[in-house]
Amino acid sequence: MSRTGKQPIPPMSGVTVSLNGREVAAKGPKGELKMTLMDIVKVEQNDEGIFVQPANDTKQARAAWGTTRALINNMVLGVSKGFEKKLTIQGVGYRAAMQGRDLKLSLGLSHEVVFSAPEGVNLAVPTQTEVVITGIDKQAVGPGCCGYPQLSAAGALQGQGRTLCGRVRRPQRRQEEVRSR
What we know:
Blueprint: E1 16-20, E2 23-28, E3 31-36, E4 41-46, E5 49-54, H1 59-80, E6 83-89, E7 95-99, E8 102-106, E9 113-116, E10 121-124, E11 130-135, H2 138-141, H3 149-154, E12 157-158
Antiparallel strand pairs: 1-2, 2-3, 4-5, 6-11, 6-12, 7-8, 8-9, 10-11
C-alpha cells in the first residue's frame, strides 16, 4: 500500500510512463496517450510504481486524487492491452453493417443511423446483431462512445449496463370532476 492508503499503479512490461511537469504520457505496444494533471494532485514515480496523492486536504483534492489515479491506470492498461466493448442489438428488424469506417444501423426509425467512428476507435460487426468497439482510450470505447441520441431513443443497444424490458408506460391518472348543480 502507498503512504496514503491507495494502491500504487504497478509498472507493466512494455509500457513506459513519463512525468514531465504536469504532463503524464504512457507509451506502449498499442499506442500513446497523454494527460495533463490538475494542480490539486501530486504524482510521483519510483521503482514500485506510480503514486498519486492529494496536494492538500480539501474535499476537491481528495475527490480528484482517486479520479486521477483511475485515469492514469486506464492509460497504462489501454496502451498495453487495449479496451473492448461488445454490444448486442435486439429487436425485430434491427441490424448493423459496416460501410467503410462508418457503422450503419437500422433501428426501426424512419431513416438509417450512420455513426462515424472517432479517431482511435475501431468498430467491427461480426454478425448483423453484434457490434464490437475497440481502442486504447477507455473513455472513447466505454458507454459514452455511442452517445448518438437516436441509439438511446431506439433502445436497441444492449451491454451498456442496462437491460431493456419493453416500453414502460406510466399509469394515467385521469380523474373526472363531476359537479352537480
